[in-house]
Amino acid sequence: MEYSEELFTIIGCDEAQGEKIGRPQTTYWKDAWRRLRQNKVAIFAMIILILIIFLSLFGSSICGYDHTKMSMDMNQTPSLKHWFGTDKLGRDLFARVFAGGRISLMIGILGALITTVFGSVYGSISAFVGGTVDAVMMRIVEIVSSIPYLIVVIMLSLMLNDSGVGSILLALCIVGWCQTARLVRGQVLQLVNSDYVIAARTLGVSNWKIITRHMIPNTMSVIIVNLTFRIPSYIFSEAFLSFVGLGISSPNTSWGMLASAGKETMLFYPYQMFFPALMIALTMLSFTLFGDGLRDALDPKLRR
Amino acid sequence: MPFFHTVGWKQKSHGFESVFPAEIGKGRKMIKYILRRILYMLLVLFIVTTITFFLMHCIPGDPLTALVQKLPEQTKINYYAKYGLDKPVIEQYLVFLKGIFTEGTLGESIRFPGRQVLDTIQRYAGFSSEIGLVAVLIGFVVGIILGTVSAIKQNRLPDKIISIIAILGISLPVFLLASLFQYLFTVKWPLFPTLGWGTPAHKILPILCMSFSPLATYTRYMRSSVLDVINQDYITMAEAKGMSFSQVVRRHVLRNSILPSLTILGPNIADVFTGSFVIESIFAIPGLGSYYITAVNDRDFPMIIGCAMFYTGIYILSLLLVDILYVIIDPRIRLTGDSN
Predict the structure, then answer these.
(1) What pTM value is reported for the model?
(2) Which residue of B has its CA nearest to A160?
(3) Is the peptide bond before B63 cis (omega within 30 degrees of 0)?
């Protein structure tokens, strides 16, 4: 078949279409999510975390027992009726473990959030303002971080003697923010002197815009990764304190407390220690692995 | 600025020529730095002591509450007067400071009359450090080795095994590990004594438990920093010169990658002292940690203050030691007085 000229028509070039970007745009977060999705370990850890959080929220309604209700079925081994068994007062351990999880997770997440937000604001102000303010603020950090944290926590948790969530949270937060403040200050200092921020300044961009456009997006990844690594350390601190009897106490419950109660009967009913211990270890493990993955996804420079 | 510094020093010292002017200049700077840090330490110690003192007096109850409950009114008053607890807190604080500066004493335990606070700390801290320092040392050395091996064999079987150990060490809280070990090695297979103190066998389990978490931390730090160093040009250079692999690792890789691990050695030593009380309570070791908890529960004011001062002192001292170690290992680090 011959191709003759009249078979073709010139449709012209649309000026507006010429500059159009054919593919969907990727933002920083979409890109990070794409990278995170490829990391199987991190995704697996994330699923476990979501599962633990879900069970902590709805645990007692799933198994149908109240975590404070006592019964005559004391010290029963795990069975279909009581999935994790019962404790020495006949309370269902499944309900108790996840009721404890609610408090442990709450302390972990809230504690990490509060200290990270405070530390970030403190660190950024220090770096952004600079000069004497920076020097004074950093000296304060230095002094606060020279205080051994357990000493303060033990003193405070005894002083605020109400054995609730609030006092232990306060005790953990008072000394916990220094590390984040240092980290964020370092990051912001680096940014303030970076070429594109200097370029923005010379172009006359306002401080506010520099902060919202350059500072916050560029420090966000560091802060978020820091947050994920802080959560397990707070869960650990709470468990640790409750385990030695300085943290949460009855009628509240937490993983540390359950482990501590389980330890007393460990020789006869090892499962009473096993389940809370498993939950602590699993949560800390998942947060660590998820944090590793998140760091690699958010900051490809750090990928190993 | 070593160059300018050296010049300045030479001018000041009236033409005195040294064989190693730069070295001496550095030494002087070092001494100045250390002196400044010691001043700083004293300030921190003072602040912590003050905070502890006032916090302590905010706790409901005092050391005599339990003792004087059933005693007649006048005896009660006499008791309070004897220990100076009837005075306002500020005045008690001044008395306490006076005791430290004029007599160099921290006072006497109220709950156990006759026990000097300093003596008690000396005695019990010994037990704590016997297991704590050994544990950190083992953790540090083994962690450095494991981390290096893991990085050299990156993504191969040894690396994977070591990474699993490291992750476990980070996510298993020490008290769970201790309970597990106690169950396994004293109940299931009775290899070691369960509780107590005295023979070397008593120390093995606590040391094992305590070294596990530092070990994991050092392994992780070491792995990432060795991976960093191994890709540097000077390593390729050293290999190109014909150095053997073990020589490269010992001379170049280790020295350059050990810094991040050193950074956390300081806080780690201090954590061993403060964090040891869980291990101490699980294995019934008569260490200072468990003593501190008892003192806080008893509201034994002089003991609380003494322990808090001791812990803070150890903490700051280990931070300083690490900073000095830093300069010795890595000559590139400048001493600006800014410890970050």
Answers:
(1) 0.76
(2) B59
(3) no
